[in-house]
TrEMBL record, chain A:
It comes from Galeopterus variegatus (Malayan flying lemur). CDD domains: Mrp_NBP35. Binds 4 [4Fe-4S] clusters per heterotetramer. Contains two stable clusters in the N-termini of NUBP1 and two labile, bridging clusters between subunits of the NUBP1-NUBP2 heterotetramer. This is Cytosolic Fe-S cluster assembly factor NUBP2. The keyword Isomerase does not apply. The gene is NUBP2.
TrEMBL record, chain B:
Component of the cytosolic iron-sulfur (Fe/S) protein assembly (CIA) machinery. Required for maturation of extramitochondrial Fe-S proteins. The NUBP1-NUBP2 heterotetramer forms a Fe-S scaffold complex, mediating the de novo assembly of an Fe-S cluster and its transfer to target apoproteins. Implicated in the regulation of centrosome duplication. This is Cytosolic Fe-S cluster assembly factor NUBP1. It is found in: Cytoplasm. Keywords: 4Fe-4S, ATP-binding, Cytoplasm, Iron, Iron-sulfur, Metal-binding, Nucleotide-binding. PROSITE patterns: MRP (PS01215). The lineage of its organism: Eukaryota, Metazoa, Chordata, Craniata, Vertebrata. Binds 4 [4Fe-4S] clusters per heterotetramer. Contains two stable clusters in the N-termini of NUBP1 and two labile, bridging clusters between subunits of the NUBP1-NUBP2 heterotetramer. It comes from Galeopterus variegatus.
Amino acid sequence: MTAHSPTWGSPDTLVGSTPASSGPTPRGMQGQHGKYSECGNLAGVRHIILILSGKGGVGKSTISTELALALRHAGKKVGILDVDLCGPSIPRMLQVQGRAVHQCDSGWVPVFVDQEQSIALMSVGFLLEKPDEAVVWRGPKKNALIKQFVSDVAWGELDYLVVDTPPGTSDEHIATLEALRPYKPLGALVVTTPQAVSVGDVRRELTFCRKTGLQVMGVVENMSSFVCPHCAECTNVFSRGGGEELARHAGVPFLGSVPLDPELTRSLEEGRDFIQEFPKSPAFPALISITQKILDRALAQLS
Amino acid sequence: MEEVPHDCPGADSAQAGRVASCQGCPNQLLCASGAGAAPDPAIEEIKEKMKTVKHKILVLSGKGGVGKSTFSAHLAHGLAEDENTQIALLDIDICGPSIPKIMGLEGEQYVEDNLGVMSVGFLLSSPDDAVIWRGPKKNGMIKQFLRDVDWGEVDYLIVDTPPGTSDEHLSVVQYLAAAHIDGAVIITTPQEVALQDVRKEISFCRKVKLPIIGVVENMSGFICPKCKKESQIFPPTTGGAEVMCQELKLPLLGRVPLDPHIGKSCDKGQSFMSEAPDSPATLAYRSIIQKIQEFCSLHQSKEENLLSS
């Protein structure tokens, strides 16, 4: 396997230096979408999960990362694909920001976050020369990179690929879904916070799922409540009840409420393994329960 | 413009229509003719329309969920308290239009006589309707909002944006280029995962030469209603907005604490500042609004001096 680091230049020249132009095209990568499903870089991926919301800042990337860590603890090999091109948060959450991305014959080699190579990550964050450089791209350019991210990352054998998305129902979402469709994703996990303003946007995301034929595995309500570390009083800082009501209205399962835990935020900022370090956190039982439901669903799909 | 080739160089690039990947694209001839590079006539039309709009403020972040729409709404409410000031609030978050909900509007466009709102949310018949549009269509909508809405005599036009640095942001800056934007207010929360994205937004503003009025740090500390002690729900692990502003030499307009009543007021479509006039969050909002007004007045008198000299 030959590997060499591409020179990325500024984000505006990013798409010009692509693996497809600098190496042999892998077998099965040419032609229409339908031909991808039997070969190509996603052939070794058992289950694909999309993490969606309509709303920004509800914790999609946090939930994506926590889900990946929890799946790893359950003995699974996990990949994370971060298709948030404007705000790629995950490299920092796993303390791998600034790592170089190498190429091989099949395409881009994902960045492994641990020695055992049990979590692999691909994000536009790795392709930026400077971390503060903005990716100021219009839709067509974003679509092109996302198609490459989906088809040109050499994931190898994975049990789960968790796809973290930006907020909205636009280019990134359409492009990601179109590219993933031949591989029959397991479904989408839709994240909201309790308040009506968030639910208002997430309802639209659920419509997007319905219209595009993407199965919704369930709704997760994040930032449900905050337990004061001084007196243990529980406050609903972002209103209450929205997640469960949304799930009921849309006729999809409610997977659980994850409370606010500043330790969770802090550990992600510092790139620590929250699942390992904070089993006593109020967020822990909720995250483990959500992961178990996903594992059950994957098992049900296989049988 | 739905069928865009894999390596499209961009319709406004110098290579438009001329590179190998343009072969077979239905727009190849149009791009190669240079038509894409010509300035959009809408820019002049919008400049004309904007002559009756005194001040234009963009509310930006890189990050989602930091409180842009909440802040835009309260900025509008705050400025509109002076009955002699005409305020317009434009929501260009096409996929996630929160402003109608936060302003308590179902289909009406006027909150008060002097506070008008425009949002794609008003054009959707059901709260479940999704706007699944690619960039070019979103840009078209934004152009329409700016060009085809009869704004009338407006003292402040506040533009609420979605998170990111993409079509919507490029379009609003491009379309208002000739009309002159006073500046941008950048919203963040204290934690590094937000600041990381906000720095990109600041980089975007500098790239497109958009003046930055200052930064607002939202959800900055939480006072427990029971024991009254402060906690940091979103810990400022890298020093929060204060350190970022020092590094980037930008004004920190203020810090707004996390008051659970803010979320509740927004859900009800009420102005939090009217519902809780003594809350520390209200005082923070008012101080920030005043600084924004001062910036705009200073900017206006500078322009007047330039014109008269």
